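Project standup — Tuesday

K.O.: blocked on the structure for the chain from last sprint. Re-posting the sequence here as requested.
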Amino acid sequence: MRSSQIYSKDGPRDLKVSFLGFYFSESEPSALEQISGGPCAILAPVQAFILKNFLLEYKDLSFRDRVNSEIISSKLIDALIEILEQCKTQKYHLVYLNSEVLHGSTEANEANCDILEKKDNDRFFYHSITTPFDFHDRLKVVVYERIEDVRKYFIENIGSIKSQYGVLLFLYSVIHTKGLEQVKIESETSEPLIDETYGYGSQSLINLMITGRATTYVWDHEQDVGGLRLKGIAEQSAIGFITVMEHLRFCTVGSFYKNPKNPVWVIGSDTHLTVIFSDEFKLVSPETKSEEARRVFKSYDPDGNNFINSNLLGNVLETLGLCSDKEYVDLMKRKLDSESLGIILLNAFMEEFFPKEESSVPDMFRLIHYNGLSSSNINSEVQYHVGSAILLEMDIKSICDSNPILTALQTKWPNIEVNWDKNMLPSLN
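H.V.: unblocked you, prediction finished:
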């Protein structure tokens, strides 16, 4: 996922372009704007938490017409705090530039204030920082034990957070709060969080931002791969994640990510991260028994063939808490696999055990897409893109390589179709 040029092994690279603050779009005041292929591995999750909090408060899209700079700053702070809370192991470590005047600090660093120039929208720009070494030489850390103190810090220093280097400083704060050694332990890999050549944020970084744990994989719990127990997502998350890479069979996204606590999902393409959300909270309502059965059955069908090996029937029944005695399982095998093909179809399984399927998900709902890159939006203005979604009655995918967003959505809703406003497909890149 593109987090273009956040840092390399020698430190930050393009200090004029890459190290941006949390800037909001003029045309969509609640939407973060990503300049020149910036750090979407941080911006997209932060935007997802901002949208989640707006939806919890307003219940619909009416917040778009009610926001002002004070509300936006408050929601940004809420999102940053929520991410830090998930990452905390002992104390909160907030990284800042020594050149900043920290409000409420006994050390005002007044000697270095001459490098700060205040611009519009309470943004600050640092003229004397011209190399990666200038930047890293000025990094300092302030430590807090209470989240109330963290909130006070963010409120008093919101100008620098929304200004140049704000995104990078928050990333460093997340890693410092989590602890670098803990990040290494959780990721179980020697790969960097950000690719030093192309600047892509790793899945470990994305997971850290969304869940507070830097695991490398996106399946539920652990999976045995060649005798290794590889960790994925530990529990249902506040924000979800889906990716077009699952359609390409590069990964398997688990139920925890596909069914988050709130109807907000970060979407991954091969180069970028965007966000999809809805004001229909029934999309994340508790599963019905039949929905649980479909999910469990498909967990034993990782290739999405809509059938399983008949020898796995007992595992499915046991996972669902149904009778899994050997005699009963053998009887059901003969019934559901009457032609002895060695497979059991999903439809046959559901008709036998859950003939009256119920769905907690409405057939029609609204989806809204966010892409922080202005160049990927209509008229080069960052705005939410609204679509009307419908779930068809049959499990048939209309595969279309020219519609990547539909391909990604079908990894969550296999039978979904979406009509987008102005007949313009949102871009995932």
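K.O.: great, moving the ticket to review. Residues 301 and 420 are 32 Å apart (CA to CA). The radius of gyration is 24 Å.
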